[in-house]
Design a protein that fits this description.
Order of helices and strands: EHHHEHEHEHHEHHEHEHHEH
CATH architecture of the largest domain: 3-Layer(aba) Sandwich
Oligomer: single chain
Radius of gyration: 20 Å
Largest sheet: 4 strands, parallel
Distance between the termini: 16 Å
Number of helices: 13
Strand order of the largest sheet: 2-1-3-4
Helix content: 40-55%
Number of strands: 8
CATH topology of the largest domain: Rossmann fold
Length: about 300
């Protein structure tokens, strides 16, 4: 079958969420995230509390809505696959096979790409293809798309909107914190290219949003519960420094996360807000992209480019 004859399909991949707010389901999900290692009682209790505080993660429904919008835009079959929960990557590949997709582009819903950090997706995808007996099927993982113009514009538009929602005196003294999920330092040191992609995204969004150099900075969030040093600065470290420097408000702008989920709805909306307000800072957060039309255009561009490669 030639590339022209192939039926193209897209698999959107992200990490998933617990099946319910029940403690046993949170524990099972955390065990998957931890590579089969059972989480401790305190960790399960803490994450159960966090998931209940946000009413459960909407990540899977949002990912499905992204798939629906992308399918309408592209006219190709689009399915979803979660790395750590149902529907699994195997489930998504099986659904694409049932729809006769013979050339699949798998897009990880993280615009910055690291072969090391994303290797679990590649293994799960290869295992799914083998389980389905589709060795002849063309399956490609899209690489980095951290500077895709429509993606950058989507974030910049969100930053501008968040600033416009602030009172004038808060807007004039606002700091924009562009964030990504923290990493153990020993892992980050192995991935300079990934760190460069995060910086490139932040710089592109700031330029597109019209931010001066002193109006924004990059930082980390959502450091894990594993021992060892994690990347700095975390936004918790910056809040008192911003207040001491005369800032009156802060806007958190995740540049790696594409949807509302625990790390946005709890770590930012609850955790970062409390930290900011303790320091006397007004708090804002950009709206997550979710199924934003510009994000869908960016994903479509990634899919088309990957099939043409």
């Amino acid at each position: 079958m030639t590339q022209r004859d192939a039926v193209h399909g897209v698999l959107l991949m992200t990490y998933g969420s617990p099946a319910s707010l029940e403690r046993r389901d949170v524990a099972a999900y955390l065990a998957q995230v931890r590579g089969g290692r059972e989480p401790g009682v305190e960790l399960v209790d803490e994450f159960t509390r966090r998931y209940r505080a946000i009413g459960g993660s909407p990540l899977i429904p949002i990912t499905r809505s992204q798939a629906t919008a992308l399918e309408a835009h592209l006219g190709w079959p689009v399915e979803v696959g979660m790395r750590f929960s149902k529907p699994s990557i195997l489930d998504g590949m099986r659904a694409l096979a049932a729809r006769d997709a013979s050339a699949v582009v798998a897009i990880i819903l993280s615009p910055q790409y690291s072969p090391l950090l994303m290797s679990g997706y590649a293994r799960a995808l290869a295992d799914a293809a083998q389980a389905l007996g589709v060795a002849a099927r063309e399956v490609r993982i899209a690489g980095a798309w951290h500077d895709e113009p429509a993606f950058v514009e989507a974030l910049a538009e969100r930053v501008r909107s968040a600033l416009e929602r602030m009172a004038p005196e808060e807007r004039e003294a606002a700091a924009v914190l562009m964030t990504a999920h923290s990493l153990p330092r020993h892992v980050a040191e192995q991935e300079p290219g990934y760190l460069a992609q995060l910086r490139t995204t932040g710089e592109a969004v700031a330029a597109r949003a019209g931010l001066a150099e002193e109006e924004w900075q990059f930082c980390w969030q959502s450091a894990g519960h594993e021992p060892g040093e994690w990347m700095k600065p975390d936004f918790a470290d910056l809040m008192p420094k911003l207040a001491a420097a005369g800032r009156r408000s802060v806007i958190v702008a995740p540049v790696q996360f594409l949807a509302d989920h625990l790390e946005v709805l709890y770590d930012v909306d609850i955790g970062a807000r409390a930290q900011a307000e303790r320091c006397g800072l007004a708090f804002g957060r950009i709206e997550s992209l979710n199924a934003d039309p510009n994000l869908i255009r960016a994903l479509a561009s990634v899919a088309r480019r990957s099939t043409a490669a």
